[in-house]
Design brief:
Length: about 450
Amino acid sequence: MKGRVLIIDKDREFSERLRDELRVLGYEVLAASNSKSGIEVAQAFSPSVIITDTFSVGPDSLSALKELRTNQPQTPVIIAGDQSSIETAVRAIQEEGAYHYFQKPVDAEKLRVVLERAVELAEARRENDILRKQLRDRGAFGELVGNSEPMQKVYVLIEQVASSSASVLITGESGTGKELVARTIHNLSPRRNAPFLAINCSAIPDTLMESELFGHEKGAFTGAVSRRHGCFELANTGTLLLDEIGEMPSLLQAKLLRVIEERVVHRLGSRKDIPVDVRILAATNKDPQTAVADGSLREDLLYRLNVIMIHMPPLSERIEDLPLLAQHLVTSLAAKHSRPARFISPAALDALRFHSWPGNVRELRNVIERAVVICSGEQIERHHFAPYPFDERQRQRAEDTVTFPVGTPLEEIERQMILRTLEKTGNNKTKAADLLEISLKTLHNKLNSYRARGLLHDK
């Protein structure tokens, strides 16, 4: 079977003829005469593709089509209508995301080609959904890592907004990963194959920011020796992240608001309208309402940008994600620097757990990167973090404490407890066995098992 097709058309003769043709091609086909029954059939049938006449989805065809798309968001919808439905079909494609339009009578060969592509698209969408769920379950989502409750809430919001063109305001302390949220939204959106640009408003002098955003013509100001495209033009059809939006001068904020509303830009030195289609994402490390109160952020711009707000929690509020984050960073940074490091010892991991991380994930990355670079073996130890200023009291607590995130497999908890106890006893296996209340033979058997499976790396 090539896939499942649902036909929604009040023309019974057309439906039956099309159903017979599609069954010959190897599709499983069901038919309904209107959108209400079509939605009911679709929920039980789970079609790969829906073929419908615009006038069979209800009196208000676009609203009915929107309801159909809402109930079957991953299912491509093909419009098959007569001459009088062309205008409605075009709007259905542009406004409601219909996949394709055919004018009746439908050319069988063209339908076959389009249908095959639509089925492939539906399968790709479903596989992408499954992959994203699997990634979330394992603690990763796009470029974000963590399976704590705060991060799960972030993932849900990203999924909800990614497919739209709505503006998103991303808040959170410096170093929490706001740009990664923006990149993940872009990569999961229909604009994923278009440019993604990020501009840090706090890093650009006020005198250059307007040119950076909107571009300039040759001779627009001293030093403008040639035409330059701004970020809006460079990101056209894609996504533009305005990081630290509260650092943008107020006058430029007013111009930005106009660009967002009118979807045109003017290069400096030119009055020509340049149409742009850019999704705006903004980020700030300040509380938005406080920024409005102190005058650093225009209230009207905040309302325009803050269609959806996503808050990135500080690392201290999702410390259970630290083991996943640390291992992810070790793996990626070791590959970047061609270093042998692959693991973090339990003692080293505990030292990380008891730090307060005022610099959030960015600070953690810097600590891990240094350890990866100086580590000559496969396992990072606590001394590889020196001379990083971990609090001495926290270090003492880390020496005698092992913590685990909820859901850690019991076998992994046992392994880490054994290795941590050996480290505490200076690798004295007899003393370690006594503390663990197991026999020395059992301890040796455990260690040999870890070594054979590559889970123990002797110094």
